[in-house]
Amino acid sequence: MTWMGRLLSSAGIGAARVDTLLGKDHYQPGETIDAKVMLYAGRVDQRIDGIHFSVHSQIGRKEQAEIAHCTLAEGILLKAHSVLELPVKLALPEFTPITAGPIESWLNTGLDIPKAIDPTDTDKIHIIPTATQQAVLDALESLGLVHCGVEIEPLPAQSRLGMPFLQRWQYRPGPDCSLTAVASLSVAWRPQLAGLELLLDHQSPSGQDSNQTLMVRDDQGSKLKAQLRNLLSSQELDD
């Protein structure tokens, strides 16, 4: 490379760019993202110290968290005017939050290029519920509860739940709800080997706060409505 070529590369003129091509636009927690990372060289040769692929989620109004990461390659010489295609597979954690309300997730693909502006590509991804998660949401709605918000609750590093955060779904009784013991309800879930552990925090009309759990297997969606009704109608609430 000539000295002028080095100058152009360091200044970011005619530099490489990166683009990520996804196989689809929606994924479920625990699913593997299958993508292609395309590198388009500029007018000069450039050394790429690393290619990084990561998934991030919004966990607050101004906070975000990296929930998955991998390094595709290191120490690549990208020849001028060339195109390099790299396949990538990255598994989403089981606790990946569902896209809802202000909660969203995205992919970052970045290049580490010495003495240059590092190119990045950002792609939003839509995270949809698993079949069991959707069964929970459907059962709550069928009980006459109205969804009124969703938020992320960060957890301490030593939490027994073994997760960095919980996604909490907020509900209130609708006009057709028969759950007279519930004035408000917060539902979160913890992925298990063959299902979910539901974490239910609810308040009674008299102001009593209660915390209960319910194990939901992947194959018991048809019984879930009745189980939730019995649990939330109980007058012997666990503190």
Automatic annotation (TrEMBL):
InterPro entries: Spore_0_M. It comes from the Bacteria. PANTHER family: SPORULATION-CONTROL PROTEIN SPO0M. This is SpoOM family protein. It comes from Ferrimonas balearica (strain DSM 9799 / CCM 4581 / KCTC 23876 / PAT).
